[in-house]
């Protein structure tokens, strides 16, 4: 290629890199904004996107997840876009290193999730079950998220109805959430044991495996 053609090719690649990373930067800003919105006004977000509550994202704190992902994308987008524009080797190496670290972490997380599903279930139960006992029926947003999740996915608790034993909800309502007994109400231990509604973890895990 002639020097002019090489220069034109380089300019095109540089421009495409800047546009690509600008899109990542804007996406990160959007996710960060949505995460802050969910944190500040979670109830209105849930009303708008309630149908998505069957997703695994409803088991974890959506606001913090979006904020973290948005912040990471902002950094990646800035390093890639500004580094390409300035043709800075330092910024581009930082960008490459960050993407490489994230890639390795994703691969490691995928391997752990596939190989140690039982361990993941144990760890998740250790984190979420105490939250169900303490926050369900107390925190309106947390309660609404779990109510919609259990209704849409047709599940009860994380493992089963026993997750609500000795919880604030059980002590104040003298029973379990109605989703744990199907259509039966009131929902007590006898009915819950007979109906045997599966826990949300198993249902969501099956959904993930189906769509893997």
TrEMBL record:
Q: How does it assemble?
A: Interacts with SLC19A2. Interacts with NTRK1/TRKA.
Its family remark reads:
Belongs to the tetraspanin (TM4SF) family.
**What does the UniProt record say this protein does?**
Structural component of specialized membrane microdomains known as tetraspanin-enriched microdomains (TERMs), which act as platforms for receptor clustering and signaling. Participates thereby in diverse biological functions such as cell signal transduction, adhesion, migration and protein trafficking. Regulates neuronal differentiation in response to NGF by facilitating NGF-mediated activation of NTRK1/TRKA receptor tyrosine kinase and subsequent downstream signaling pathways. Plays a role in the inhibition of TNFalpha-induced apoptosis.
Q: Which Gene Ontology terms of cellular component type are present?
A: lysosomal membrane; plasma membrane
The entry's localization annotation reads: Lysosome membrane; Membrane
Q: So which domain of life are we looking at?
A: Eukaryota
- Highest lineage ranks of the organism? Eukaryota, Metazoa, Chordata, Craniata, Vertebrata
Q: Which cysteines are joined by disulfide bonds?
A: 156-180
The entry's keywords: Disulfide bond, Glycoprotein, Lysosome, Membrane, Transmembrane, Transmembrane helix
- Provide the membrane topology annotation: Multi-pass membrane protein
Q: Which PROSITE patterns match?
A: TM4_1
What is this protein called in UniProt? Tetraspanin
Q: TM spans, by residue?
A: 12-38, 58-79, 91-116
Q: What is its main location?
A: membrane
Name the InterPro entries on file.
Tetraspanin/Peripherin, Tetraspanin_animals, Tetraspanin_CS, Tetraspanin_EC2_sf
């Amino acid at each position: 290629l002639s020097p002019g053609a090489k220069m034109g090719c380089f300019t095109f690649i540089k421009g495409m890199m800047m546009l690509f990373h600008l899109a990542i930067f804007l996406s990160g800003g959007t996710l960060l904004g949505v995460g802050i919105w969910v944190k500040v006004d979670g109830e209105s977000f849930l009303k708008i996107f309630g149908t998505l509550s069957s997703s695994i994202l409803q088991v974890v704190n959506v606001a913090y997840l979006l904020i973290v992902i948005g912040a990471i994308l902002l950094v990646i987008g800035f390093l890639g876009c500004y580094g390409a524009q300035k043709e800075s080797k330092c910024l581009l190496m930082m960008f490459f290193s960050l993407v490489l670290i994230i890639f390795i972490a994703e691969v490691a997380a995928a391997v752990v999730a596939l190989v140690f599903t039982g361990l993941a279930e144990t760890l998740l139960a250790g984190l979420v079950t105490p939250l169900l006992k303490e926050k369900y029926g107390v925190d309106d947003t947390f309660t609404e998220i779990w109510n919609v999740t259990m209704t849409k996915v047709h599940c009860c608790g994380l493992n089963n109805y026993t997750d609500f034993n000795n919880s604030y909800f059980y002590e104040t309502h003298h029973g379990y959430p109605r989703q744990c007994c199907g259509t039966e109400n009131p929902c007590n231990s006898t009915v819950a044991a007979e109906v045997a509604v599966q826990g949300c973890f198993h249902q969501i895990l099956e959904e993930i495996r189906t769509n893997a």
